[in-house]
Amino acid sequence: MFRCLLLVVCLLSVACSSIAEPAPDAPRPNIVLIMADDLGYGDLSCYGSDFINTPHIDALAKGGIRFTDYHSNGAVCSPTRAALMTGRYPQRTGVEGVITAKSHRGVGLPLEEVTIAEVLKDAGYATAMFGKWHLGYDIKKFGPQRQGFETFEGFVSGNVDYFNKIDQEGHKDWYIGDELKHVDGYVTDLINDGAVDWIGEHVKENKDKPFFLYLAHGAPHYPMQGPNDNGFREVGKKIREMPKDVKGTYRAMIESMDEGIGRVVAELDRQALRENTLIIFTSDNGQASRYGGSAGPLRGQKGTVYEGGHRVPMIMHWPSGISGDTSRAGLIVGMDLFPTFASMAGADMPKGLTLDGVDLQAVSRGDIPGGGRVAHWIHGSNHAIRRGDWKLVMNASTKPELYNLNEDLGEKNNLADQHPERVQQMDEAHNAWLKEMREGVERVSG
Ligand SMILES: [Ca+2]
Hints:
CATH topology of the largest domain: Alkaline Phosphatase, subunit A
Largest sheet: 10 strands, mixed
Number of domains: 2
Order of helices and strands: HEHEEHHHEHEEEHEHEHEEEHHEEEEH
Bound molecules: calcium ion
């Protein structure tokens, strides 16, 4: 199992000579999945930001793999989370858009969906989540503890006041387990320090049990509040507020998250767990430009199907499995993490489960379909299909746009008129995919 994974890492890395060979009976790795919210491709120093300093996240990249062609499945929050949890396209799960705090309070990711937390729990992992769920507001019906997480502390909506823990429609939104409970503190710190405490407790009680820890940060999603600001939302009211220094606040939110991630990594070190812990850092969609985020060289932002909407940072760090300071281009999508984690854990897959993500081990065996990997995105009436280097962007009211991302990462040069056959083929492939995805699926989101 581990030998296979190392092959993948080798294939995915520019430099593979520094990868260690673990013993065949090596213990299964712990998995710490850290996801920022609305953090853009250009918002980390290790992805080119000269404005935001992220030394702790950069250190993970330096000792691991920094992916440059990784994509969230959605251009907004809920679809990406549905895909991450299920290993399936969001369209297949019914969560195509945002599960909004206003209109979707009674729905959620269907419980019939099998989540990665359930699969890892069944495989003997301890499972815990801190932070943003956004896959259903009725916590006793759709909450994390109904989907495989043994421990949960956090919020169920798309965003909360970082101090008052109130969502944008004026509902209180901070839970410990299933219980609504106010806890003092800055949300970003509560998530990181909650993880630190949980790791300590876990080691005390279950020293040898591997764990899956999911840290779903709110940062840097609005409301724009740095660690030294104050809460402003009130129960029953919709209050929107922008700071005077939007960019500075945005930076403070990310740098605070980075500092806390440093504390999580330090705790793994202190408990002698870091060597065999796979740490992933990523984002759920591209930046919201009006709040100061950057897509770096990419076109578009959150809510678009241009690259800036869904190409986001992804870092894998795992000292006993990966070493290097390597970066890699190669199309990978959020839903791939489910089969990859499951395979690393030696987990049995439920019979009959259809996954859309690929185990990164399959990449090494050449199991990706001929002609390059294919992936699809939808946001509202905007659709995109990627095949190898080519990307087709479609909207019902405009002509299709075709880009070669290898030559034109910024999607500036529409080649549709030069390649009508390619446009037609990709359009047909996308429509066939869409039909398969939506057949018999009840949509539960906006
Ligand atoms: Ca988001």
